[in-house]
Amino acid sequence: MNELDSIKDLISEKSYNEAKNELESYISNGHENDLEAVKLMGLVNVNLEKFEEAKSYFEKAHKLAPTDATTLFYLANCHDNLENLIDAEKLYKKLLEIREEYIDAYKNLCIIYLKTNRELNAIELATKAKSLAPNDYTFDYLIGTASISLKQYNQGIKHLEAALAMNPSHFQIYNNLGTAYLLVGQREKAIECYKKAVKIKPDDAISFYNIGSIFQIQNKHAQACEYFEKAYQLENKENYLISLALSELKAGMISDAAKHYKALALLHPEKDSFQYNLASCYEALKNYDQAIVIMKNLLARNPKSITMAQKLANLYIETRQLRQAKDLYDSVLLKGAVSSETLYQYAILSTQLFDTGTAEKIFKKVIKMDPENATAHKDLGVIYLNQRLFDYADEEFNTALKLAPDDFDIVFEYANYLYALSKYKEADKYYEKAININDDVVAKSLSAINKIELNQLEEAEELIESALKDQPEHEYIQFLAGRIYYSLKKFEDAKIYFIKSLEQNPDKETQNLLALTYYELGEYEKALNIFDALLTDNPKNISLLLNKAKSQEGMEDYDNALKTLDTLTDIFPECEEAHEIIRRIS
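-> structure tokens emitted (586 positions)
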């Protein structure tokens, strides 16, 4: 065995460094112009990915044998790997002039055409090569890939399918075919292709990412997260994390989304979108303080942003900082034209601040911009109702009902409007319709109160018991239950629910009703204590003074009852009930 044969054995065993050492020794010992040795040295360096060094040896080999096809191919390949694409292209073309059937030269030259956005050249060359090697899948693969770049998707699919028929285990063909199917709107076929690519190469992150992207497009965000997470685990790419965080946010996986947006915001403090989405996560988690801090900083950086101002205003509304929210909406309105949706939110905020004048004016603007906005008509009707402008209210409610006859809020508010007008039979019809649309506990409770007015006592009790079963701890439902049981003269039950309601909301109306309940139960001292407390803030209230006197009478404390009645008659001398008690206990 000669010396070069033993070096070839080392190369075949992939012992490239050892082979290189042997070749260097061989060449330096008087074999500088040994073509085979020089070519082997170039090949060893190619395998060691030392392309600059390999190029120098193949250049020397080319001088020694200018028409040697293998030398030309590897010299072109070195230029190719060094991104000297112009030189590589010239050498591949020269090689094909010398040996037209050199298939690998066609492949590499096609790839250069694709890299340099010359897809038509790639297709032409690959088509020629395909006639020389009809069973080589590569050329259909290259034609298909070039066709997709040219947006000739059906042509691309045809050639990629042909390539797969020849090589069904090539994961990249499946990836490219998946992309082609996605671009023609065949998403299920695209997912099928990407999944086959994953099966062939389970460590390929891009295939997982592509599947996740399709699920994201389809708004199947929980499934998208599964694939984005796998892609990110395989390859720590930032765009994978961005897609994952977005789908987590939309899938309601808020804690995970917050963690990832926090990481992205730390990596890119200059990108407002990451900060904004992090604030949205905190908002969903009801961590309003942190959300407000982020949005205040963002708004300081983007003072002209209406979206950010509205976001911060809504956070202020959530934390009941209504004045700050209104100030922000005022600034938004000063910035120029705003949408009817923005104006609507401003009107609602004005209502919450009891600025009904502004609310009325803004609701009218909303309706002018969007006459079909049934909710705005309804809300304006509520304002007119509170102002006792019944004709105007009726017009707005009826307009709202025509626009949205099956909208729960509109039907429910119209029922409340009819109740306020003492039109109990009509109100009953609309309460029933509202409950059929949405089995809402508040609707059932207010319907029960309306039933009391219609003297339908059993139905009233049935409705309130149903509401309590649905939400036994709801403060307003407990208050309404107390009112209904009081009307039904079930004072022990009324007392229980008034007390429960007061534990959550020490409201004066509830305190007054509890005191009246105590009076009906003969618990006069408890009633008196509440009436006294209420009179502290409103010492000239005739009703409170009268009920205080009646409680004192119940306790047989006639002297103090007479004093209370003297105070009352000084304020309202014509109070016949007070004079009747005076006559009775004097």
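DSSP finds 35 helices and no strands in the chain.
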